[in-house]
Amino acid sequence: MLTAREAARALGISLDTLRRWDRAGKIATERDAANRRMVAASEVARLRGDEPPATSARNRLRGVVRRVEVDGLLAQVEIDVTEPGRVVAIITREAAEELGLGAGDGATAVVKATSVMVTR
């Protein structure tokens, strides 16, 4: 989550414009415990028109993270795929933390050759 000021800066607009967009329903915001506007990074990406990175991988298996097991520099991510089956990927701890993966989250296993990458 970003503060309203951080979101406005990322969008290249003023804080007042962000507030107007919120009142007009053009941007989804939430309120924190102190009643300050907070904006999800995904909402900023949507408004900026950011697209996911292009990749040559074609095999994508959507599913739900069953568990994330961190050991040293690596994280084992187990995904229950929509089709019958399960995919287990070994990714770096940093990648797992950056993706914010946790049990019950939606995720996609991208399969390329013998490697399994995880996206969100």
Features:
4 helices, 2 domains, 3-stranded antiparallel sheet, 120 residues, 5-stranded antiparallel sheet, alpha+beta, OB fold (Dihydrolipoamide Acetyltransferase, E2P), elongated, Multidrug-efflux Transporter Regulator, Chain: A, Domain 2
How does this model look, in words?
The structure is a single chain. Strand 7 and strand 8 form a beta hairpin. By secondary structure, the chain is of the alpha+beta class. The protein contains four helices and eight strands, in the order E-H-H-E-E-H-E-E-E-H-E-E. It folds into two domains: 2-48, Multidrug-efflux Transporter Regulator, Chain: A, Domain 2, CATH 1.10.1660.10; 59-119, OB fold (Dihydrolipoamide Acetyltransferase, E2P) (Beta Barrel), CATH 2.40.50. The chain has a five-stranded antiparallel β-sheet with strand order 6-5-4-7-8. A three-stranded antiparallel β-sheet has the order 1-3-2. The two termini are 16 Å apart. The protein has helices spanning 4-11, 15-24, 41-48, 93-99; strands spanning 2-3, 30-31, 37-39, 59-71, 74-81, 86-92, 106-112, 115-119.
